[in-house]
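Sample pair:
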Amino acid sequence: MRIFFLIVSLVCLFSCQRKYEKEKWATKEDFGPPAARKAMLKDLLANYNLKGKTTAEILNLLGSPDFKTDTVIAYKVVEDYGSDIDPVYTKTLVLKLGGSIVTQARVDEWKK
C-alpha cells in the first residue's frame, strides 16, 4: 500500500509541473489556451525573469499574446467554462509595460 501512495504522489508531482517549452506554450488550441500552460507557469515565472524584458523579447519567448495594448501583454493560462458558454474561471499571465519594457509580471485569477 505504501508503494501505491508513493507512485501516485510521484505521478502527481511530475504531471502537475513541467519546464517551460516555447513551442508548447505557443501552441494554439481550438477552445482556450493550451493545457500545458498551467503546468509550465511556475517554471516560467521562477526561471525566466520576465520583468525588465522588452516587448520584442517577450514576443520571442512567449509568442503571440491573447491580449495586447500599449500598456499590457496578456496570455491566458486557464479558461474553464464548466457547463456554460461563459467562463466560470480564468487565470491569466499579465505583463504590465512601461514603454516597451515589462515593469510587472503577475497572475490574475477570476472566478464567477
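The chain has a mean pLDDT of 87.
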